[in-house]
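Session log. Operator J.P. requested a structure for one protein chain; no other inputs attached. Running the standard single-chain path with token output.
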Amino acid sequence: MVCSLPASVLLLTGYWPVVGESVAICFSDGPTVLLVPEDEAELAATGFADSVETFVPGALTQMRSPSDALRAQLKETLKKLKTAAGTVGVDSGATAQGASYLGMHLFGDRLSHILRDLLPNFTITSIDKWLLDLSSVKTPLEIARIRQACAIAKHAYELGASQLQLGMKETEAAQLFRGPLGTLETSGKQIHRSDGFAFCMSGPNSAKAYAAYARTRQRRIESKDLVMIHCNSYVDGFWTDITRTFCLESPDDRQGKMHTAVFAARSAAFSTIKPGGRAVDVDSASRQVIQECGLGQFLKHGTGHGVGFSPMSAYSKPQIHAQSPDVLEEGMVFNVEPAVYIEGYGGVRHCDMVVVTNSGYELLTDFQSDVESLTSAHAVQKKRKLAGW
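Structure written below.
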């Protein structure tokens, strides 16, 4: 196998490329070799490749493309590995990748062209489905990284929620949750890169949060708004997909009904998660509860999707959807995100991360999991005072 997509390199070597110019070479009965730009050598050493070889994409005295630099190093490496003839699997086709840097280089089909030139006696074939199946079941180390990313998100949610206030712009609120993702102390935890994204959608904007992307606007948070905070944190290439919906004042009857339905749907979905279970049954359990609560017309999307090597992808398994063919396996990681969106009013989504265990599931995001913990400290204090506490 010769793979260049950052998620594929991470899967096969344990190293998440920074700028996307790295390549993993794996033999079924031989070594795993990682080719990286010279300035990524220190980070690349944290993976589990048998060896790391470096190349220089460009220098003061020489200007060349990443493909040309890779070709020269790949030729030398393949010669040392004494390749003869056979089949080479490559990653190709449609994909979704978590952003590893400000900009990512993707070799695309250029890698296949280089391999055909360097290995004329080999057959080049796509292994996308094999890579997808392999990445859908996480190893204990991969789950540990996702668990760390969830812990960082927990810290950010708790800190951000304590500072939310009426009158804030969505942009200001989002930054309360975004900042801690990249500033939490991680020394001593074997974490090399951690950060992420956070988005705020309030009031009527939260009703539009079912879109394929989250969007923070300049709107100011008003009294009685539902305030939805969506977060994607990462640790060394392993991602989360988490959402909480806050009330800055005591929830009214309508908001209470929405939250009650979503939490009941969440519990129903959890009850169906086990090895051998069907993804479609997880979706059905959640969907049925929301329909029984009289909010079925406000359902806008499936109940979840695979998460880990990317924060969200139409290709990640399992897809928790009404038409999903996927069967749950131990080690699969996905989100459970029941939600209702009432146009012009607001939306409630509660998105958790779970991993399938040998007997059921582990909840990786066990925080702010009831209406009281999603109500601002000011509102809770006022409620307690009125109740005579």
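Operator note: The longest strand covers residues 226-235.
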